[in-house]
Amino acid sequence: MVYGEPIDILLNLQAILTKYWGFSSFRPLQEDIIRSVLAGRDTLALLPTGGGKSLCYQIPAMASEGICVVVSPLIALMKDQVQALRDKGIKAVGIYHGMSRVEIDNAVDNCVYGDVKFLYLSPERLTAELIRSRLPKMNVSLLAVDEAHCISQWGYDFRPPYLRISEIRDIIPKTPVLALTATATPQVVNDIMENLQFSEPNVFQKSFERKNLAYIVFKEEDKLQRLLKICNNVKGTGIVYVRNRRKTREIADWLKMNNIDAEFFHAGLTGLERDAKQNAWMKERTRVIVSTNAFGMGIDKPNVRFVVHIDLPDSPEAYFQEAGRAGRDGYKAYAVLLYQESDLAELEQFHKRSFPPLETIKKIYNSLGNYFQLAMGSGKDQSFSFDLLGFSRHYAFDPFVVFNTLGFLEREGYIATSEALSNPSRLMFTLDNESLYRFQVANPKYNAFVKLLLRSYTGLFSEFGKINEKDIAARAGISEESAIKLLQEMHNMQVLHYQRQNKNPMITFIEERMPASSMSVSKEVYREREKFARKRMQAMTNYVRGRHGCRSLYLLSYFGETKGQRCGQCDICLERNKAGVSAYEFDQIFQLLKTYIEKNYSLELILDEADSTIPGEKIANVVRYLADSEQVIIDEDGKIHWK
Ligand code: ADP
Ligand code: MG
Prior knowledge:
Layout: H1 6-21, H2 30-38, E1 43-46, H3 53-63, E2 67-71, H4 75-87, E3 92-95, H5 101-113, E4 118-121, H6 129-134, E5 140-145, H7 165-171, E6 177-181, H8 186-195, E7 203-205, E8 213-219, H9 223-233, E9 237-241, H10 245-257, E10 262-265, H11 271-282, E11 288-291, E12 304-309, H12 316-323, E13 333-339, H13 341-354, H14 358-371, E14 383-385, H15 388-395, H16 399-411, E15 415-417, E16 425-429, H17 433-442, H18 444-456, E17 465-467, H19 469-476, H20 480-492, E18 496-499, E19 506-509, H21 523-545, H22 551-558, H23 571-577, H24 583-598, H25 603-609, H26 616-628, E20 632-634, E21 640-642
Bound molecules: adenosine-5'-diphosphate and magnesium ion.
């Protein structure tokens, strides 16, 4: 890394910020993080979503010579980032599955010999030999690990390929690492630093406190009516989260029927539909979006006024992320959670099905291989269209368990599902060069078309290459339909293998099919993971059940912040406020009451004995509040007991 005197750095950083991003000043902690990185220190940046983490590695990279390698788990976000940098005239490339070997080869070459500033890698690609062998030849100034919590086995979004990032550290040992995340419990923070081999602990953390966000929990039998009330009472844009796709549509329709401008969203929509709905909401042509958790990642809309959860998220991490999309602009906003008693049992059920026995996972994996007729050791980088229900019926699996197993297999890096990738059409010649030539001579009708294919795409003899029928048609001067027809005909004649772009869900094998017995997850590890997931679920249950502490304080302490003040605006604080005492008075009276309640005093007795500096009326109010919120009970004799 190259850096000069501190003052120069500062001016320099400011200049970069303004020149490329047009921003006038840094956000809290951005500058500290950037300086830490530039000083060559391994750094962990814990900033909320929307806090501006990307700049924390982009600016040091721009201030240094060489290339910045960024590991990022979500292909869609990665593509956006690469594009955004290119739009600023900065050279950036991304490598992810779905790219052909030739494409990867070219991209890597550009990083070694060209002046590429950013190389985005999906974690599965990290340890590909092609990349490992050439990383040392790149002048890597910084290794940035986005969504770094994915490295923790015990965290809520573990992705096994992340564990291999440390191997990269060994290859480029002098390069500092910057880990970035928005959610991490203290345990996960340590896990990140350990796994990434930090030379010393070094964390920059912004408080998780969201002063303008009111956390509200309603125990509610009629959730829809409550939702409607919220939409009518809170002005501005909102997000409604539900767990399944069907409900997104139903609830959006119901809201529309009640004159709320709403749309639904989920990952099963086509890319175009998603873009359209997202844009309409961003531009405030749609007021409320009802969605599965597929909505919101990478979306930065500051003036969201409410986020309502109709179903329980399975962890405080997930809840905090989703609810935290409200009120980024700093103005008052609401994070509302609606639940009924049965939801808690459902969450438990959901958890169970999310962790099917390891044997079941292996069985499903094996059945997938059979279903697609893959021999052991084959299938790498091949894609298949997949009918979840048909498959489940055929092998008598619970579709939900199959769905979760796919998620598991995807996180473990065995397969990718189409929601993470686009599936362009693909083509490979089945004939070798010479036989193809003979075919052309014998079938003049196809001659020009084949030539055009050969001119347009390279490498089609050895592996599948992506093609675009529209482009081909335009170059050939024929209609797209005719081009497709020609391709299909040659496919049927076994001249080439044509895989037309598929709109059905697709499964791509990232690794060749292996015997289920060689899958690498151990029973013990899997069981541990299940245990931690259960803990998170319980923490979530405690959050909604809680009648005692401030909601904000509860979440803060979950994320390891022990210092903090009551928010004064969550449902619990509001309820307390009704006791007509200040937060300070409440705590004071509560402390006082504790000893008396231990002794089962009655209110009268307490009032007799209590310090006369506290008005008896206020003490009575607090007692009434505690009774109303079912924290204490008052028996027939007027004695007070903890519930
Ligand atoms: P994160 O990764 O932490 O969720 P991003 O890096 O995506 O956040 O940044 C969120 C938004 O904030 C982006 O639109 C980004 O351009 C903007 N942003 C980041 N830093 C600044 C800054 N210093 N001034 C103004 N806007 C900023
Ligand atoms: Mg980010």
